[in-house]
TrEMBL record:
<dbReference type="InterPro" id="IPR019734">
    <property type="entry name" value="TPR_rpt"/>
</dbReference>
<dbReference type="InterPro" id="IPR050498">
    <property type="entry name" value="Ycf3"/>
</dbReference>
<dbReference type="InterPro" id="IPR011990">
    <property type="entry name" value="TPR-like_helical_dom_sf"/>
</dbReference>
<keyword id="KW-0732">Signal</keyword>
<feature type="signal peptide">
    <location>
        <begin position="1"/>
        <end position="19"/>
    </location>
</feature>
<keyword id="KW-0677">Repeat</keyword>
<keyword id="KW-0802">TPR repeat</keyword>
<protein>
    <submittedName>
        <fullName>Tetratricopeptide repeat protein</fullName>
    </submittedName>
</protein>
<dbReference type="Pfam" id="PF13414">
    <property type="entry name" value="TPR_11"/>
</dbReference>
<feature type="repeat" description="TPR">
    <location>
        <begin position="90"/>
        <end position="123"/>
    </location>
</feature>
<feature type="repeat" description="TPR">
    <location>
        <begin position="124"/>
        <end position="157"/>
    </location>
</feature>
<feature type="repeat" description="TPR">
    <location>
        <begin position="22"/>
        <end position="55"/>
    </location>
</feature>
Length: 211
């Protein structure tokens, strides 16, 4: 009985060291990735997966590396595995959605961004990219709502004001679209003023004849 307990403790300790080693290799891989040393990063991440085939973060990072090399399908395969290992991995859903955007699978991208948001309701980047996917599908009202949610979370998000301005103009709400662009310009996005010159300064008559 004593031997069984010792063996069990040894297995548990070995498992902890096993997982920690995978984590260390992944962290090293992340540091190399951030330095744009992708091949060295890949070697470390592969080692992490070899040590712990269930470590979702390693698959996610390897997916990022593959995406940098434009291996879209390879990246998606790794993101799939990361999500299989951890169904609450918001960043993996987000990254897979970005790959689908590049492949022009906008409905699939929207589904992934929505899954990321379901895990993290304040995931600003997921709202923004979901809005862009909806824009491609000309679902302007839904895309506007995503921008409005970003502004609710962060009232100084210049990109959300700019995109909502463009969307509102495309949707026919020129006045509010131009006000959004003005806010984007106020917050520092100078290209908003170029759009204002093009889209917002043309005289349009209302039904009552006033400008």
């Amino acid at each position: 009985m004593k031997n069984l307990v010792i063996t069990a403790c040894f297995i548990l300790l070995s498992g902890a060291a096993f997982a920690q080693s995978a984590k260390e290799y992944t962290q090293k891989g992340r540091e190399l990735y951030e330095k744009n040393e992708f091949m060295e990063s890949l070697l470390n991440v592969n080692k992490a997966i070899e040590l712990d085939p269930n470590y979702s973060v390693a698959y996610y990072l390897r997916g990022n590396i593959k995406d940098r090399f434009d291996d879209r399908h390879g990246a998606m395969k790794d993101y799939n595995t990361a999500i299989e290992k951890n169904g609450k991995f918001a960043d993996a859903f987000f990254a897979r959605g970005n790959v689908k955007m590049k492949l022009q699978d906008y409905y699939g991208a929207i589904a992934d961004f929505s899954s990321a948001i379901a895990v993290n309701e304040n995931y600003i980047e997921a709202y923004f990219n979901r809005g862009k996917a909806k824009q491609f599908l000309q679902a302007y009202e839904d895309a506007i709502n995503d921008c409005s949610k970003i502004i609710q979370i962060n009232p100084k998000n210049v990109d959300a004001y700019y995109m909502r301005g463009i969307l509102r103009i495309d949707f026919g709400d020129v006045k509010n679209g131009c006000l959004d662009l003005s806010k984007a310009g106020e917050l520092g996005d100078l290209k908003a003023y170029e759009v204002i010159k093009e889209k917002c300064n043309q005289k349009t008559q209302d039904n009552d004849g006033s400008y």
